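Input for the complex:
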Amino acid sequence: MAEQDWKTSKRTFAAVSLPTLFWVVVFFLIPMAIVWLYSFGENRGLTEIEFSGTLENYKRATEWLYLTIFGKSFAVAALVTLICLIVGFPVAMAITFASEKWRPWLLLGIMLPFWTNLLIRTYALMMLLGTQGFANKGMGALWEGTSWIKTLVGLQPLPTWEPVQLLFNNFAVVFGLVYVHLPFMVLPLYAALDRLDRSLIEASLDLGAGHFRTIMRIVVPLAAPGIIAGVMITLIPALGAYLTPDLMGGTDSQMIANVIERQFKKANDWPFGAALSFLLIYAMFILIAIQSMRKKVPEVR
Amino acid sequence: MTEPAKPIIQIQNVSKRFGKVTAVDNVSLDINAGEFFVLLGPSGCGKTTLLRMIAGFELPTEGRILIDGQDMAGIPPNKRPVNMVFQSYAVFPHMSVADNVAYGLKIAGVKGGEVKDRVAEALELVKLGGFGERMPDQMSGGQRQRVALARSLVMRPKVLLLDEPLSALDAKLRAQMQFELSELQEKVGITFVTVTHDQDEALSMACRIGVINKGEVAQLATPSDLYEYPSNRFVADFVGSVNIFEGKLTLDEPDKAAVDCPGVGKIYLNHGVTGPHGADVWIALRPEKIYLHVPGEGKAVKAAAQDAPDGYNFARGKIKGMSYLGDITLFEIELDDGARIRVSRPNLSRHDQEDFTWDDRVSMHWRADSPVVLLG
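Predicted:
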């Protein structure tokens, strides 16, 4: 059969892609365009928005207050991505080098959280981290145990256990985001590592390199496409994270998505919310542009 | 080589089992310093596992491996005085050729200036001088293999291990690399241990060949001994092309023997076999050692088989198949007694193959020292 591409059979291609194209245009591009237009509009009364072409919303969105929130969101998202990378890389390596028998089960373990709703997972995490949660209870039991042993050998008992505040702060937000985004990091890393020719690793060992040097000099550079994919796929949703900071964060840990949500709801200032949203989208565009501009790593088989 | 052979690698009663599968079964083998040793066998026979155990990528289930007298148990691959050229070459794709070759030297702590000199020298050795700045994806498969060779040789290992080094090259390049590898090995004087399933490769390059079958050493010999004096049916059949006939030993004296092979007739040998009378034996007869006569020439030639008694080592048959291979023509002949026999005939002149056609009746003979008697 001759190879077919969209150039030789334009009609078939059009027929097949039309439903998807329709879907994307009607339910994504048009609403986005409307929101984009809002960002140049002004509030007139409670529900009326006039498209006046003003840049006032963008001016306000780039005020210091909002820039710090943007900055903080970037910092949190970057930290989350870094932790995911550091935690996820060994996990991906472990799955790659696990035996054939174990690998599907380990992959299933990584994907299992996707089967549960994000909201439920977040509440479950909150139960774990609350002052009456398992984490605190566990630590408390250890504390009491140590105290009891100390009295047993005739030492002063420890002071009474004070539960640690693990929820409603920045730590909780980062922890929650890492928990949610880890699979997004592990899967592209695994895909990249799995493609890696094992004999490259063996060749490095054979030439005298230890395991650590082999990972740093051979595995990491060759897994770079997967690392970049994992970073992008983690960083972008983490940057726009809404639910986790909303539920697990404290008063000082709101991220940009929470501010945007407030504009559309409580503040009823759609034009300003739209401007903030588009600033976030532009930032993401820039990230993606940087990624696609980087030099491709040559692949040799 | 004439100097007393000293084993650089000693493989002692080594077995390797993967679960219930025995890949290597109680192999003992010495590889001498400075020789070009080839492990030859069909795929899945355990030869690569054996090589990987020498490199340290697999650990023997039983037995031990000594390199230069030192037991390798517990010594990881990066601490062994051997280097390996991988089947896929495993050239690091993100490093230039020079960086690839320098990789091991830098790890070994060799100083910058010396690294540069040794890299240049190694690239010169594999005829890649001036290619240092290239990236691997700008090179052909054959060139990448040379990079892999240079990268290993630059480490000056005691032993260079090569896993199917020529299998990914096309036929012409393969033939050229066979010569180059032998030449290179003589030049650097490092012991080469090569794994291959290709008998031509093994015969052309090796000082000695270890034929491996089902995890065991089937025969250990020089190329010509392996070909001319195979010790069992597996080796006779695997190395080169061969006719194998089953028969009974009917005559066995110090200077002569005869084997009665149903379908062929009596095969006469000019040496003793020292097997029990009437024993079941096998005769291996190489296709090129059978002289095929042009039709009508038979009578005159019968006398040519004069070293065998009348009626022996002479056969008639009908051509059932022919394949013209350029340098030789291969014939498949059905003997009058029923057996099929393969005969090859060099095309000494341009029209040689035209003397024969399908269903021609032909006669053939072979010398009394050509057949090999196999007891197993």
